[in-house]
Amino acid sequence: MDTIYALASARGKAGVAVLRISGPAAFAAAKALAGALPPPRQAGLRRLNDAGGEMLDEALVLTFAEGASFTGEPVVELHLHGSPAITAAVLGALGQDPGLRLAEPGEFTRRALENGRLDLAQVEGLADLIEAETEAQRRQAQRVLSGAVGQRAEDWRRRLIRAAALLEATIDFADEDVPVDVTPEVLELIDGVAAELVREAEGASVSERIRDGFEVAIVGRPNAGKSTLLNALAGREAAITSEFAGTTRDVIEVRMDLTGLPVTVLDTAGLRSTEDAVETIGVARAVDRARQADLRIFLCDEAGLPDELSPVAGDLIVQGKADVFPGDGLRISGKTGQGVGELIARISEALATRAAGAATITRERHRLAVIRAIGAMESARLEVLEGQGRAELAAEALRGAIRALDSLVGRVDVEHLLDEIFASFCIGK
Q1: Predicted confidence (pLDDT) at residue 240 exceeds the cutoff of 60
Q2: Which pTM was predicted?
């Protein structure tokens, strides 16, 4: 396998820049620059020189032996001073070595997968961790990276293998009297795993929302104060406000962190019947996006709720322009800030309740694999109930469920996904 190298830290000026070399020639390449290397897992300060003996930098050199590194290969990290000029000079020196090549996007992580250091779900967890913007996203990604999906998949797999083995024992001894009826244990194993998989499938959409962000739509009649409220939530002038009704024509999105949860707040066009063709399009878009949102804030004015959209269970109904119009219940004013803190608390509480139902699996790929496994197990259960004569068909259905679960962690049927997954990684990771 080629020896690869790349800058593992962000480009640009920094206190320290980390350059990673991985592969069979990593130690030799680093030795050509730094001379004698420190022992594995120990750091040493070394002068780095190019092929002509000119000093490039004084760097901290850290080595990892094969089997003890992130990629599973011999790895050397060069912790340089974070000057773009120094980084370019050291990269240039490594580029002169015919045994090395620049890493492709995600190639270090791909080697970790190929060498058994990570499973495919952990790779996806690492990608999510790199992209995490909020505490909830960090916790979820960290859980996946730590191997939670793989551990659960292994437990499900072990129980289904036990069920299949019991069925195959009846096939092997079909001409003899089997002393114990295995049907009750097989059905117990199938039903137990199936129940857990159904819960995972149901919670997957919540996990995806934590990863991609919840959507909260502010809806109401024209000039109800929706844009002013959005600006108050965002802490900046994200939307144009005006005393003229119908100022907002399109959906305005502002992404923010609400008590650790990723949230996109949508400011929508005022809901009313209008002869204006452009405003009519805006109203239609507002209704469509609001229906798709995870939570709607109905901002009422003196005329009450809009006719075009009705609240559903869990939506928040708020009296707007509290500085002008009196009323009962939660009253807010985006202009003065009255009630905004309480509204944020209500939104956070509602979304936190939904986030509590998140599954271990976090992606649509995971959910589809679980759905395939559930379908195969339903087939297996029906075959088991038909009697011993259908044991072979039941065992084959269980093997199909096991293969579906294996695809969760990359044991089978995922080669076509790898290029797409690793394309989202930066070079150096």
Answers
A1: no
A2: 0.78
